[in-house]
Design brief:
Structural class: alpha/beta
Bound molecules: adenosine-5'-triphosphate
CATH architecture of the domain at 1-72 and 193-249: 3-Layer(aba) Sandwich
Helix content: 25-40%
Number of helices: 10
CATH class of the domain at 1-72 and 193-249: Alpha Beta
Shape: globular
Oligomer: single chain
Distance between the termini: 34 Å
Strand content: 25-35%
Largest sheet: 6 strands, mixed
CATH topology of the domain at 1-72 and 193-249: Rossmann fold
Length: 249
């Protein structure tokens, strides 16, 4: 079964076309990295797949079906800077929002929902911060809370937009081990990622993007100097520089 199938997807913001003729077929049960330079359209691709953008053509299927908001099969972790962290709420309530797909926005969460939410906070090492205002958490702690919210959705396919940005090494390890745990449960995870040094370790499958698809396939096939050169153009360096860490593109 395929986790994601995209056919001839194009997206424009007003007149400006930012994604052109994207076609992808990605099997279920993998951790996929979506990689490309700034402005390549990585976030736009996720938003288009999640039906959040009006101006698109082409088709998208998740687990072989068009996205149906009532299915709750998709979990989303937005970019951290896309979230209003001054919103007056605590960490537990943010995680409970992940349950709304199951309980409905008008109903009160049950004890079981609260237990699931607390469990998810525990999984990301944030149980002790359940009652803390989200605005008072550090960037990495906020990211962990958002990951917990996605876990609370109990989705089948996860889309995460740069979950490793601004987090320390311990948080990064926590996040990657959670992604691997999701994979071991047969779930599929899509991650927008910038760090080429870790990409080959983290991902089973890589989509290289620059306004259109440069490559999509198993990491060992797609993550090659030629494909990276094509995706990053003149901004690219050499693979051995990627390995030495001089890769912050
Ligand atoms: N709401 C918007 N209105 C108009 N243009 C937009 C909007 N959002 C993104 N764009 C443009 O679309 C293009 C793709 O942006 P997008 O954020 O998808 O790229 P990205 O690959 O995720 O970039 P980054 O790595 O910098 O986060 C960029 O040129 C950006 O300026």
């Amino acid at each position: 079964m395929n986790a994601l199938q995209v056919k001839s997807l194009s997206v424009a913001y007003e007149e400006k076309v930012v994604l052109s003729n994207i076609s992808l077929t990605i099997p279920k049960g993998l951790i996929t990295g979506i990689i490309g330079p700034n402005g390549a359209g990585k976030s736009t691709l996720i938003k288009a797949v999640l039906n959040q953008l009006p101006n698109k053509t082409g088709s998208v299927a998740i687990l072989e079906r068009p996205l149906n908001p009532k299915d709750h099969i998709v979990g989303y972790v937005p970019q951290r800077n896309a979230v209003d962290w001054d919103f007056p709420t605590n960490a537990l309530d943010v995680v409970l929002m992940g349950r709304y797909g199951h309980i409905g926005v008008m109903r009160r969460p049950s004890l079981r929902d609260k237990q699931i939410a607390l469990n998810c906070l525990r999984n990301v090492g944030m149980e002790a911060f359940a009652e803390q205002s989200i605005g008072q958490l550090s960037g990495g702690q906020q990211q962990r809370v958002f990951l917990a919210r996605a876990l609370a959705q109990e989705a089948e396919v996860y889309f995460m937009d740069e979950p490793f940005v601004g987090v320390d090494a311990a948080t990064e390890r926590t996040i990657i081990s959670i992604l691997k745990e999701l994979k071991s449960q047969g779930k599929s995870v899509f991650v927008v990622h910038h760090d080429l040094q870790t990409a080959a370790d983290y991902f089973d499958w890589i989509v290289l993007l620059n306004k259109t698809t440069i490559a999509s396939g198993p990491t060992e096939v797609t993550f090659t100097p030629d494909n990276l050169q094509e995706a990053y153009g003149g901004k690219l360096f050499f693979m051995d520089q990627a390995k030495s860490g001089k890769n912050d593109l």
